[in-house]
Structure of Radical SAM additional 4Fe4S-binding SPASM domain-containing protein:
Amino acid sequence: MLPPPRGAVQRPALAVWEFTRACDQRCKACGPRAGVARPDELTTDEALRLVDELAELGVGEVALIGGEAYLRADVLWVIRRIRERGMSCSLTTGGLGLTQTRAEALVEAGLQLVSVSIDGLEASHDALRGTPGGWRRCFEALAHSRRAGARIAANTQINRLTWRELLPLCDLLADAGAEVWQMFLTMPHGNAADHPELLLQPFELLELFPELERVIARCAARRIRFWPGNNLGYFGPLEGKLRRLQQEDGHYKGCSAGRTGLGIEADGTIKSCPSVGGAVNAGGNWRDHGLRALWERAPEIRYVEQRGLDSLWGYCRECYYADTCMGGCTAMSEPLLGRPGNNPYCHHRALEMDRMGLRERVEQVAGADDQAFAHGLFRVVREPKAAGAGPVTIEGPRTGREAAFFGPGAPLAVAGADEP
């Protein structure tokens, strides 16, 4: 049984809907491990009823993702219903099979914006996506969508292969007519948990953010709206430029999961964030409860809104910005350390460590299973910037199966400088 409602709950501005998990690519950083449709995905009639409930709840925009949403022919019916119910509709796609014919059909149905996932320059993108020629087809997808009458955008994962290629990619996107460019750090779940070598180290944020400052300036010059993902930033000196289009004061206001946004899985599972999965994040299934009851009452969806400072641990609990930031993006910290509340991927934190002569890096100590959004287990190693200059501190989760690796406290160990 769901608990009774707890006061007024604001409406979600954005619903991100995994329309199907079927996909025509096998990307190395895919969180849901897309490829094959989920068992018991919503039927067309169910999807149309869910659209009606999204409108009744007050959702402003529905973003269709996958897998690849265009692999279900009934996506045209759903887009049309979304628009008929007064909501805007966008599509995020890998672009591989977004032909001119498909683009025209999607736009005719009411699709307004197409965001194509482009991860770096050609060699990096094709290596990450496992699809030779895929990068070129992404730019063809942008052109097809623009000719069909849609606004076009791009989204890019920042990782070891891509982060030095952002400036030249900016010019290519501007030449293609992209209006918006979203960036986010690769998250350590799903397929990316099987490829930890892709992840930037926390201390490498000190190199990344000066590069991002140059990218932001280039975006402004080329008239592209730079849009940082929820796991990028946090109170460093670049924050005002990073989030100037998102916040009036240019500062991060905490995770939006379950506050202004919700996620929908293809089988009707409702969750607070589209980038998390598993039972701990699932509020329940739409078929069983309906959308409004889950949004207003499911503890898993209301978690971010209702948690307090006691949910923070490790360095984040001690941080000056703790009560505003609340550990940043939960979809970054939970796959990394087993639970939210301690996030080493923070520009402010990296700068503070550097000021103290320290740096942080992450090490994987357990792999992930083959489920969607599954994550393994990492630990944070805090060490002197100069090798051999002092002790090493290791932080890790404190509860559940993580305790079998780390024990019950955090910080969990202090080792000699010669110990990893």
User: Anything to note?
Assistant: The mean pLDDT is 90.
